Amino acid sequence: MRRRHLLKATVLMPAAALPMPAIAQAPKKIAWLTWNLVHLESHIKQWIAGFVAANPGAEVEWIDKKGPELPAFYQTQLVAGTPPDVIDIQGALGLEYAGQGALLDMTALLAKDSAVKANYDADYLSNWVFEGKNYMVPYYVSKTLLFWNKNRFRDAGLDKPPATFAEIIGFADKMKGGEKTGLLTLNFDWLYWPFMQMNGIDLLSPDLKTPTFNTAKAAEVLSVLADATKSGAINGISWTGRWVEPNEAFATGNVGMLHAHAPAYFWIKGKGPWINGETVGATHVPGGWATPNSHGLGISKGSKNPELAWAFVKHITGNVVADSLARTASVLTGNRTVDQAQLARLQKDDPAAYDVLKTQFEFTDKMCGNWRLGNDSRVKDAFWPEFQSAVLGRKTPKAALADAERRVARELRRA
Predict the structure, then answer these.
(1) DSSP character string of 46-84
(2) Contact 152, 180 (CB under 8 A)
(3) Do 287 and 300 fall into the same domain?
């Protein structure tokens, strides 16, 4: 669905109070591009109305695009020289736009508004630091965790989540059989990387210039994943699906574990009536590793009204609007004040959701799969097909890693 909404505020004042004829006062306009938030239309209109009421003469155009459409739309607007002033971007796309020179460096703005900066969670804020500069601020945040189906665990004689990689695979093997499988993972945007990180495998050198993943340990891990996938311990949808397919599979109740980010809980709960605090647990993977998959707000470098755009960013991520978003969408916002209140509220009203969301602010120093790359998607597209071929048994792990190393090294040279 494609929509454009224009909200405009006018202030009625006596003619004598105007310093110049109203016709000469050109309104300041900004456009806000969001990522598939049309379901929040009524709330977004209220948030925008609140901003324009506080900024007389301002106009805000809201443009919403579905995930697959948004990057292409934004690139088109960049080429045309008419980029939306404020953009809502998921994952590492913000780093890529920063690398392209498309985003405004927000470092000085954050330094000037130090209280605003201090209210953003520092670890989530750092996910959009590129070459030492801030290019986005948190809008709504999440990272991966492990959901475990207590019913399937009980059937397999298990009473607690796995504490090691070996236990993940061993538990998955115990829960397979017939239509039942042991483990699912989401795979897009490096969400599967904790399985590599918990085994001490790093994608790149600390300076992000050299591939370091082609090791004997990596080949061993890929062999384990491939064998478990072939046996049915790992559901093959882990490597072929994206969002709907693995979540739907877990919602059937036939899968033991789901490795996904926090929003998956609310999705699967809506699909699986059996899901509640007694049947599904939420925990960290071994080592506390997790891949973030958050949304941030940035300002286009080509904005004609960057000061107004920054004021709008502060409004949307400020306590009042962020609290409304948290309550309405059941998310965490990266606004420390709002998120503390949200968790306290959920602990009282929805303990199961609290158990899921509290993990999002634990071990935030263990976030992985979030390299500060200006060419993240190209590196991902170089690595993922080879990884996928290995775990699906199409290539040997050794051959897949060697091919991935060549492809990734080529992308790094091009950067």
Answers:
(1) HHHHHHHHHSTTEEEEEEEE-TTTHHHHHHHHHHHT---
(2) yes
(3) no
Torsion of CA 32, 36, 39, 42, to 10 degrees: 0
Residue range of the domain that includes 392: 144-291+375-414
CB 141 within 8 Å of CB 294: yes
Q: DSSP characters for 336-352?
A: HHHHHHHHHHHHHH-HH
Alpha carbons 152 and 332: distance in angstroms, whole number: 29
Closest by CA to 323, choosing from 41, 42, 47, 7, is 47
Gap between the terminal Cα atoms of the chain:
35
Please tell me the total count of domains within the chain.
2
pLDDT value, residue 26: 52
- pLDDT single digits (tens) 303-329: 999 999 999 999 999 999 999 999 999
Token digits of residue 50:
């609140």
CATH at 36:
3.40.190.10
Compute the distance between CA of residue 34 and CA of residue 333 in angstroms, rounded to an integer. 15
pTM to 2 decimal places? 0.91
pLDDT digits (tens, 9 = 90+) for 251-290: 999 999 999 999 999 999 999 999 999 999 999 999 999 9
Residue 353, pLDDT > 60, answer yes
Q: Are residues 154 and 70 part of one domain?
A: no
